[in-house]
Write a structure and sequence with these properties.
By secondary structure, the chain is mostly helical. It folds into two domains: 42-157 and 298-311; 166-292, Four Helix Bundle (Hemerythrin (Met), subunit A). It is built from nine helices and no strands. The chain has helices at 5-34, 48-88, 91-120, 135-148, 154-190, 194-218, 225-250, 257-271, 278-311. It is rod-shaped and about 105 Å long.
Length: 314
């Protein structure tokens, strides 16, 4: 039986649609096959040559990062030694630790520059690198680039530690100088040599002024409550002692009502003085708990972050 012309047209149209669909599907498959990103695992052979060239350079950069980590670790050791020396009042050991830390910081900087040079020498990392490098190597390169920024704040942390340690270590010496001069003034005054006593009290004011200036600097980063109390109590006593000797000088050594009043004020001020050096120990611990501890913690944190990056490497 003959197929009507209209039916043949319908059959031809349907066949064409089926063929077009098959061609479209086939074309999509070809396109997908051709569209694999070279930097993925889909076509590792496309990145093989670049990976082989880049991997040794990236491994070399990782070795430079390990050098940074070692230098940062030694910087942290120097920082902890400085804290220990500060707590024990060993100024010689403190200077040694600070000098060592400054040297270690220079090593960190040199190692960071070496890492920058190693990263700059890695091939195939500029431009459309996804066309050349595998995803894993590209990610590793980015990790190393970002890791270099981890040490950017170490110089500031060490500057805080050094400045505060030096300032804090100078305070006990200044307080001792003040106490020696004030004691000499008291002996002169007790012997009736009021002019000499007043002169010594003037001299005792210099280390007090220096200690107050250091206190103001330290207050920006640490708790100076104990030091402030010590300075205030001694300032009150120095003032009372000065008034007593000046009053005695004016009275030519006679016990007048003004002298009795000045003597009572001196005795009250003396009762308010610290009975021992425990306050100085507390003060040094306060300083250690302040910016110094934070600086050492920041250094140790940096070392830990660098270690994490190294551990993630191939």
């Amino acid at each position: 039986m003959a197929v009507p012309e209209s039916l043949r047209a319908i059959i031809a149209g349907v066949a064409w649609l089926v063929l077009a669909a098959l061609l479209a599907l086939g074309g999509a498959g070809v396109a997908a096959a051709l569209n694999h990103t070279p930097g993925t695992a889909a076509r590792l052979e496309l990145t093989y040559a670049a990976d082989v060239a880049a991997k040794p350079a990236i491994d070399g950069a990782a070795a430079k990062l390990a050098d940074i980590g070692e230098a940062v670790d030694k910087l942290g050791i120097a920082g902890r030694a400085a804290l220990t020396s500060l707590g024990t009042g060993d100024s010689t050991a403190l200077k040694t630790a600070l000098d060592d830390g400054t040297s270690r910081l220079a090593s960190v900087s040199a190692a960071s520059d070496a890492l920058a040079g190693a990263l700059a020498a890695v091939p195939f990392v500029t431009g459309p690198r996804e066309l050349y490098l595998s995803t894993g190597l590209a990610a590793r390169y980015d990790q190393l680039v970002n890791a270099r920024t981890l040490v950017s704040g170490l110089a500031d942390n060490w500057a805080v530690l050094s400045e505060q340690a030096i300032d804090a270590s100078a305070v006990p010496t200044l307080l001792a100088q003040h106490d020696v001069l004030t004691s000499k003034a008291a002996r002169e005054g007790s012997a009736g040599r009021y002019v000499q006593a007043l002169t010594l009290l003037d001299s005792a004011g210099a280390p007090m002024t220096q200690a107050q200036a250091l206190r103001d600097r330290l207050a920006k980063k640490a708790d100076v409550t104990t030091l402030t109390a010590w300075l205030n109590d001694n300032a009150v006593y120095d003032g009372a002692l000065r008034t007593l000797y000046q009053t005695l000088r004016d009275a030519k050594g006679h016990v007048t009502s003004a002298v009795r009043k000045a003597l009572a004020a001196e005795q009250a001020a003396r009762a308010g003085l610290p009975k021992n050096t425990n306050g100085v120990i507390v003060f040094m611990n306060d300083i250690a708990r302040g910016g110094l501890n934070q600086a050492v913690i920041a250094i140790d944190t940096t070392k830990g972050l660098i270690g994490q990056v190294l551990d993630q490497g191939p």
